[in-house]
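Dear Dr. H.,

I hope your travels went smoothly. While you were away I took the liberty of generating a structure for the chain from your last submission, since the lab meeting agenda had it listed for discussion. I wanted you to have the full record in hand beforehand rather than looking at slides cold. The sequence, exactly as received, is reproduced here:
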Amino acid sequence: MTRVLAALLLLGIAGVASAHKPSDSYLTLSTRSGESTVAGQWDIALRDLDLALNLDADRDGAITWREVRTRESDLFGYALGRLKLGNTGTPCRFTPGELLVDDHSDGAYAVLRFSAQCAAPVRQLSVDYRLLFDLDASHRGLLRLDVDGASRSAVMSPDQALQRFDLAQTSRLATFVQFAGDGMHHIWIGYDHMLFLISLLLPAVLMRRSGKWQPVASLRSALLGVLAVVTAFTVSHSITLTLAALDVIGLPSRLVESGIALSVLLASLNNIWPIVTRRGWVLAFCFGLVHGFGFASVLGDLGLPRAALALALAGFNVGVEIGQLAVVLAVVPLIYVLRNARFYRPGILIGGSSAIALVAGIWFFGRAFGLGLG
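The corresponding predicted structure, in token form, is as follows:
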């Protein structure tokens, strides 16, 4: 049984280690009352476009401006061929514009500017978004729609690829719900966040006595410990998520991503060689501050005005917490049942933490030194 569980865990960890960062694009559309033209800007990661179009012609691992510029017509053709805009059911016609390159927190992006001409003044705008869904089902399009200076937001996904916006109405609730869904999605595909949380949960059904791990006496005591840890993590990452998303504090992406990997590494090593045993919430709070900057990168890159950003931030944060709660409810009862098993401490706690530490170490060195390993 121990060997089977260890093998399954290692297979899961191997899949996590080879996974790419979540893929997002940033689509901004703007128009004014009484106008029939929609102006657009679409920021798409070069790494995603390379996956679809093989931009790296010389295969040297670096995409240059020359390689991007020579494929300008292909870039516009590929992107605009996967986007449809309509006005009250009538398609709008695209006109490609300027091609630029810009840096986001997670790398270089192609910036495609365009306009869409509709047959009549825009009243109900439909957006049909299909970019990269055939290559990466986890891809998301983060949409900002500006109408007369007021903004609304949406998250485009395979399940919500077609969305309609009545320009005369503003649904704040819909924006909140959509970003809550994206928050849940982000925590579930954020493998580093997930492994950090699991590293904190594995010892939750044990307590340290006389230098040895002992099973907790009841589920209640385990849940109280988990509550303290998750609450501390929630409070701390909410602080930095808010500050970073509102542009109060900003840190370089490499520093943030390296710090997150380091937090996973130290949390897992603490399970193997326990130093912090009675105040795990302190560990969760300190490292949660770093994770908050990672959560903020999705919203920060979207560039929403503050009014829309506040609503998106609230929804996204609620979604992250719901996603965390789902993980806790799935993991804690299971490990509580297994806590008395002979294989739990050597196989799950030590073996699982060792595997997590290995992956986190690879991530840390890859991110800190730009080696492309996570």
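Two observations you may find useful: Residues 1-12, 14-20 have pLDDT under 50 and may be disordered. The two ends are 31 Å apart (CA to CA).

With kind regards,
E. W.
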